[in-house]
Amino acid sequence: MPTMIVRKQVLCALSTVVVFAAGPVFAEESQGMMERVETTAKHIGEKIESKAKAVVEKVEEKHVVDKVGEKLKKAATKTAEGFEKAGNKIKEKLND
Predict the structure, then answer these.
(1) Phi, psi of 69 (to 5 degrees)
(2) Using alpha carbons only, what angle is made at residue 37 by residues 29 and 20, rounded to the nearest 5 degrees?
(3) Of the spans 14-18, 36-40, 82-86, which averages the highest pLDDT?
(4) CA 71 to CA 77: how far, in whole Å?
């Protein structure tokens, strides 16, 4: 019986030592994992930034902003001309 108790105590002591010894190992693995996640996140952020820059360059290269501005000016001019014609027709009808 006493040997059984001693075995249990030794086994408990050994398992406690293993747990405390394994703790830093698991912490290091966890830290390594976090570093990899951080590195991957930075890499993804850099890729997104480079792709966004490429899109901006293409938009500037094709003068999309200028073209859209010109189209809006033309549309506004045509609308103003249309309203002017409509106003003239209404005046003509009222004068008759």
Answers:
(1) -60, -40
(2) 20
(3) 82-86
(4) 10
Give the C-alpha separation, 79 to 77, whole Å.
Answer: 5
Q: What angle do CA 19, 27, 15 make, to 5 degrees?
A: 5
3-class SS shares of the chain: helix, strand, coil, % to 5? 95, 0, 5
- Interacting residues of 59 by C-beta distance below 8 A, sequence separation 6+: 65
Q: How much is the pTM? A: 0.38
85/96 Cα distance (integer angstroms): 17
Output the six-digit token pair for 69.
Answer: 């501005």
Contacts of 45 (CB under 8 A, 6+ apart): none
Looking at residue 16, its pLDDT comes to 61
